[in-house]
Amino acid sequence: DAGVIQSPRHEVTEMGQEVTLRCKPISGHNSLFWYRQTMMRGLELLIYFNNNVPIDDSGMPEDRFSAKMPNASFSTLKIQPSEPRDSAVYFCASSFSELGVNEKLFFGSGTQLSVL
Amino acid sequence: AQSVTQPDIHITVSEGASLELRCNYSYGATPYLFWYVQSPGQGLQLLLKYFSGDTLVQGIKGFEAEFKRSQSSFNLRKPSVHWSDAAEYFCAVGFKAAGNKLTFGGGTRVLVKP
Fold it and tell me: Which pLDDT score, from 0 to 100, does residue B6 have?
């Protein structure tokens, strides 16, 4: 299995531009998570999906952030417009969850986003 | 709201020495507890987890952790550290009532001296 695949690996953009981060979860997993990691705030959960449905988006910072999961094998996180304070590493993770318990997250290698 | 505290931001240990990383959580119910490791430039990898049963759990790479309910702690240990253990370690807590949501601690960066 290739694991959780994220693209791009690095993204450098200018303030005000739209940024789209992509994630392909592990086949068969039914939960998908978007995390953001910064030095100041550590690892923060932005949103997670279960069976392609957004369950909890309380971590999404503001309306500039949106996430979609059109099918079980693909998700996007979009920032529009981007701001320098959005610079961070964004991780996608997936898992197979039974009975509401998330036993093990598999993380992608992350997207390093720099907004100039 | 639940919280997870890793009191040590950095720990430096000599190769071959023992290692203990601290983790404390706050919540009323019994949590699900995890330790993840992150190597530079990589995502997180699960080391071990505790859901129920024996409070001393064994994980990969020779790590173990002990759940102590009275202290609300889940400290990670390794008897003899290898240079390849240099990484950042994250404690995470989940609760069945919270569904699939994990709360991560701030992480502890481990440096290994030759």
Answer: 96
Q: Residue A99 pLDDT more than 60? A: no
Question: DSSP string covering A41-56, please?
Answer: TEEEEEEEEETTEEEE
Token digits of residue A103: 């036993």
At B47, list the tokens.
């080391």
Q: What are the residues whose beta carbons fall under 8 Å from the beta carbon of B24, sequence distance 6 or more?
A: B4, B5, B7, B71, B72, B73, B74
Question: In a 3-state reduction of DSSP, which class is residue B109?
Answer: strand
Closest CB from A43, A95, A100 relative to B96: A100
Range of weakest confidence among A10-14, A37-41, B109-113:
A37-41
Assess contact for A75 and A92: CB atoms under 8 A: yes
Chain B interface disruption, residue of A6, A37, A43, A99, most B CBs within 10 A: A43
Residue B10 pLDDT greater than 80, yes or no: yes
